[in-house]
Design a protein that fits this description.
With 392 residues, the chain is an alpha+beta fold. The chain folds into 2 domains: 227 residues, Peroxisomal Thiolase, Chain A, domain 1, CATH 3.40.47.10; 153 residues, Peroxisomal Thiolase, Chain A, domain 1. Helices cover 34% and strands 26% of the residues. It has 14 helices and 18 strands. The strands form 4 sheets. Strands 1, 4, 5, 6, 7, 8, 9, 12, 13 and 14 form a 10-stranded mixed β-sheet that branches. A 3-stranded mixed β-sheet has the order 3-2-15. The protein has a 3-stranded antiparallel β-sheet with strand order 16-17-18. Helix 3 crosses helix 5, helix 7 runs parallel beside helix 8 and helix 9 packs across helix 11. It starts with a strand and ends with a helix.
Length: 392
């Protein structure tokens, strides 16, 4: 029985910051961002947009009413949690109107979480072939004003429906994971932004890629020649490019090196315009590849490298299913171009705004007309979400 991804949805915020503008405001060379990071734009989320609204929007874009009745599990992978107890998945379950007898929970391991969630979903469907599992990767990446990580912020969510007989990609059952107890990126409960050892994190990313790939080859006796593309976790595309270059050894044919390089360029197109979305970054790259590479054909294998600081890495592969191209979009880049540009001062006000609660622990929000779902208020410390059309 084939198990895999039947549908993929994506959502990001309505505002965009041009990195050219950020470079000028921060008095740095624009090429340090455009060429040094391979980034162009960042999605900027206002206070009324968070992991719940983004996750619900991405999911709503792909789910039918029949899907909502068949879903047996909702898994939200995030490192931008809104509550230390209640899972964001529960809020999303309610907003979408998914049938009540479904498990809903949140999973965390930095940017690796969505990969763990997909594996959990696969195991559930293997035992329950008629089940559907909704996996959501939703995050808002914040690093602080004028920090080294500021150009690698972003906001967005991926929603993936895992089923038997999938219509886009099937798992190949060949995953190899690795865990290292390190401190390259972390965010204690008392901090709203993370602590990062950037040089160390880069080395760990590349070394876990090297060693996990070596173990993968050892266990499954596979060569890069077997894959049409490699998708990477994308904290910023230039780091993933370094990873690809590590894999492109002299043993590979020139034709294969050219193919993998071209497909890599297609896989970073969305991230270049959205920025870092933590748990969803790898899968935004996968979606970008699928929707921007018309030469891919059914039966071809795609390798994926997942990395989450702290650290857990995984190398695995998926196979394209016959007719996969019918279940994808071709207008997403144009849609990204419809976001509202903001000046640097506006970005700072939007992105770093915090709720100001009154003496009862309440606040009412506005200016969310262009969202699908919104955080409309906090009522005595309870977060209240609505579909925006219901509030009109």
């Amino acid at each position: 029985m084939k198990i895999g991804i039947d549908k993929i949805g994506f959502a990001t915020s309505q505002f965009v910051l041009k990195l050219q503008d950020l470079a000028v405001a921060r008095n740095i060379d624009p090429e340090k961002l455009s060429k040094g990071l391979l980034l162009k734009e960042l999605s900027i989320a206002p206070l009324t947009e968070d992991i719940v609204t983004l996750g619900a929007t991405a999911s709503q874009s792909i789910l039918t009413e029949a899907d909502k009745q068949d879903i047996e599990m909702v898994i939200l992978a995030t490192e931008s949690g809104i509550d230390q107890s209640k899972a964001g998945a529960v809020f999303i379950h309610g907003l979408l109107g998914i049938q009540p007898f479904a498990r809903s929970f949140e999973i965390k391991e930095a940017c690796y979480g969505a990969t763990a969630a997909l594996d959990y979903a696969r195991l559930h469907v293997a035992s329950h072939p008629n089940a559907k599992v909704l996996v959501i990767a939703s995050d808002i990446a914040k690093y602080g004003i004028e920090t080294s990580g500021e150009p690698t912020q972003g906001a967005g969510a991926l929603a993936m429906l895992v089923t038997s007989n999938p219509r886009i990609l099937s798992f190949n059952g060949d995953a190899v994971a690795q865990t290292r107890d390190i401190m390259d990126f972390w965010r204690p409960n008392y901090s709203t932004t993370p602590f990062v050892n950037g040089v160390y994190s880069t080395k760990q990313y590349l070394d876990t890629l090297k060693t996990t790939w070596a173990e993968y080859q050892k266990r499954f006796n596979r060569s890069l020649e077997e894959f049409s593309a490699v998708c990477f976790h994308l904290p910023y595309p230039k780091l993933a490019l370094k990873g690809l270059q590590k894999l492109l050894t002299k043993e590979l044919s020139e034709e294969k090196r050219s193919q993998l390089t071209y497909n890599f360029e297609q896989s970073i197109r969305y991230s270049q315009k959205v920025g870092n979305i933590y748990t969803g970054s790898l899968y935004l790259g996968l979606l970008s590849l699928l929707e921007n590479q018309p030469q891919l054909v059914a039966g071809e294998k795609i390798a994926l490298f997942s990395y989450g600081s702290g650290a857990v890495a995984e190398f695995f592969s998926m196979t394209l299913v016959e007719g996969f191209e019918k279940h994808l979009r071709t207008d997403r880049l144009q849609e990204l171009d419809t976001r509202t540009p903001v000046r640097v001062a506006e970005y700072e006000d939007l992105f770093f705004a915090e709720a100001i609660l009154d003496e009862t622990g309440s606040a009412i929000f506005s200016n969310y007309d262009n969202q699908t779902y919104a955080l409309t208020e906090i009522r005595e410390h309870e977060r209240v979400y609505h579909a925006v059309e219901d509030q009109a």
